[in-house]
Amino acid sequence: MLLAGAGSVAALATGCGDDGQETAPEPETAPELGSPPPEPPASAPASPGQTLAKTSEIPVGGGTIFEEQKVVVTQPEAGQFKAFSAVCTHQACLVSRVADGTINCPCHASRFSITDGSVAGGPARRPLPEEEITVSGDVISLA
Ligand code: FES
């Protein structure tokens, strides 16, 4: 009984395909699913030629931190501008304040000289790396 039943099902199935109208299946045209283009980084890294500030925005004997560019620009003496990485050499926190002649890290209280980036206190052992800047007229830019 079972065999006969299976046979008739097979006959029916074969009969369906016997109409002579078989065509090749359409090739699937799936859209390209490549990875999307890379997104720009959330915070743009410092790029050469980028204007940072006007000289008047940097206090004499102090400095200004540019978080987006991760740069701190100081003016140890009137007309003398310096720039350092704003990334603490201890554990890579961003420095947060410039006061009393030092660039200060909020994480573990390391302090760096505004004149040469050297360690003035705290757990950091290496100075802040100097960054190249150009001062053209009253505009300070990354070199
Ligand atoms: S990360 Fe700056 S003092 Fe530790």
TrEMBL record:
Indicate the transmembrane segments per the record.
none
Compositional bias of type Pro residues: which residue ranges?
34-43
An MF annotation (GO) of this entry: metal ion binding
Q: Which cofactor does it need?
A: [2Fe-2S] cluster
Region annotation Disordered: residue ranges? 13-57
* Residues in Rieske domain copies: 50-142
Q: Per its UniProt record, what InterPro entries does this chain match?
A: Rieske_2Fe-2S, Rieske_2Fe-2S_sf, Rieske_Fe-S_prot, Rieske_Fe-S_prot_C
Q: Does the keyword Ribonucleoprotein apply?
A: no
Biased composition, Low complexity: where in the chain? Answer: 22-33
> What keyword terms does UniProt attach to this protein?
2Fe-2S, Disulfide bond, Iron, Iron-sulfur, Metal-binding
Per its database record, what is this protein's job?
A: Iron-sulfur subunit of the cytochrome bc1 complex, an essential component of the respiratory electron transport chain required for ATP synthesis. The bc1 complex catalyzes the oxidation of menaquinol and the reduction of cytochrome c in the respiratory chain. The bc1 complex operates through a Q-cycle mechanism that couples electron transfer to generation of the proton gradient that drives ATP synthesis.
Q: What is this protein called?
A: Cytochrome bc1 complex Rieske iron-sulfur subunit
Record organism: Streptomyces purpureus
